Amino acid sequence: MLAPMQGLTNSALRRLYLQKYQPDLVFTEFVRVQAQTRKRVAKNELSDMQDHSAVAPLVVQLIGNDPEALADAALLLQAQGIQHINLNLGCPYGRMTTGATGGELLRQPQRLALMLKALRRVCRGSFSVKCRAGYEDLLQWQSLLPLFEESAVDFIVLHPRTVAQRYNGTADHRISAAMAAATSLPVIANGDINSPQAARTLLTRTGVAGLMIGRGALADPMIFQRIRGTAPLEVDPAQRRRDLGLFIGDLWPDYLQKFCGERQALMKIKDVLNFIPDVDLQRDLGKLKRTTSGAAFLARLQHTFPV
Ligand SMILES: Cc1cc2nc3c(=O)[nH]c(=O)nc-3n(C[C@H](O)[C@H](O)[C@H](O)COP(=O)(O)O)c2cc1C
């Protein structure tokens, strides 16, 4: 499944992945649930959800801390046809002004239990959580697991770093294996899955039910197909350029349509380019990122990443 990534996995990017790269499931960026207003979810966030859910399941990820507001938001989304809800328990950049959210909630198990209960009560489709292994302690998941089991979540996405670690160090998938062995709930492993080979090893060695891939799927959109064996495991540098040229070229018209104006679309597509890590492509990607108009962007793309 394609991971939720704020600022990146908007409806245009998700649509392209579903049409061409076929993850089994896509997530929205996190959707902030407002406890202070009766609306609960901002209008622009709602409009970003109304598309492709017929092609593959769309999971809407909520972030918030108020049980009642979260339940209201889930009801509102379900009334709009959304069937799958996920709760963010991993974001390390909580907004403290409106109370602890995301990964911070791992420090508030009592509140968390109320939130899980409230959401489970109203979610008629799947209700899942996405969490870190712990706040500061990589073993905290052991005390969180009974909470997830009691509230009968449908699956757990585990990113086995602590919240305090943010993105430092590496995701320790021995923890994913340990969690999968400790519960009958499906555990989805997430974090640092950057190659189809690593993905396959994880699937065979850890007993997890599935994989969620974020940055690795931006670096190589075909990773889902490579894992399944419907695309080659490896490609030569010329093919790599062609694949990226196609990916970026397909994304551009959708971004132009989604974002107001060329400037905004350019800014947004450059955010995607930042996640392509190939050392030998950085010079050409740098030139692409320095373009200042749509025409220049396209000309440079066709010149350096011909398809
Ligand atoms: C730019 C960016 C934005 C992210 N936004 C979210 C988000 O909205 N919700 C969430 O649960 N995780 C978010 N994450 C975390 C990813 O979903 C994922 O857990 C993390 O990147 C580890 O997986 P990966 O190594 O496959 O990227 C974000 C990560 C990045 C890099």
UniProtKB/TrEMBL annotation:
<dbReference type="GO" id="GO:0017150">
    <property type="term" value="F:tRNA dihydrouridine synthase activity"/>
</dbReference>
<keyword id="KW-0560">Oxidoreductase</keyword>
<dbReference type="InterPro" id="IPR001269">
    <property type="entry name" value="DUS_fam"/>
</dbReference>
<dbReference type="InterPro" id="IPR035587">
    <property type="entry name" value="DUS-like_FMN-bd"/>
</dbReference>
<feature type="binding site">
    <location>
        <position position="130"/>
    </location>
    <ligand>
        <name>FMN</name>
    </ligand>
</feature>
<feature type="binding site">
    <location>
        <position position="61"/>
    </location>
    <ligand>
        <name>FMN</name>
    </ligand>
</feature>
<feature type="binding site">
    <location>
        <begin position="214"/>
        <end position="215"/>
    </location>
    <ligand>
        <name>FMN</name>
    </ligand>
</feature>
<feature type="domain" description="DUS-like FMN-binding">
    <location>
        <begin position="1"/>
        <end position="228"/>
    </location>
</feature>
<comment type="similarity">
    <text>Belongs to the dus family.</text>
</comment>
<feature type="binding site">
    <location>
        <position position="159"/>
    </location>
    <ligand>
        <name>FMN</name>
    </ligand>
</feature>
<keyword id="KW-0819">tRNA processing</keyword>
<protein>
    <recommendedName>
        <fullName>tRNA-dihydrouridine synthase</fullName>
        <ecNumber>1.3.1.-</ecNumber>
    </recommendedName>
</protein>
<dbReference type="GO" id="GO:0050660">
    <property type="term" value="F:flavin adenine dinucleotide binding"/>
</dbReference>
<keyword id="KW-0285">Flavoprotein</keyword>
<keyword id="KW-0288">FMN</keyword>
<feature type="active site" description="Proton donor">
    <location>
        <position position="91"/>
    </location>
</feature>
<dbReference type="Pfam" id="PF01207">
    <property type="entry name" value="Dus"/>
</dbReference>
<keyword id="KW-0547">Nucleotide-binding</keyword>
<dbReference type="InterPro" id="IPR013785">
    <property type="entry name" value="Aldolase_TIM"/>
</dbReference>
<dbReference type="GO" id="GO:0003723">
    <property type="term" value="F:RNA binding"/>
</dbReference>
<comment type="function">
    <text>Catalyzes the synthesis of 5,6-dihydrouridine (D), a modified base found in the D-loop of most tRNAs, via the reduction of the C5-C6 double bond in target uridines.</text>
</comment>
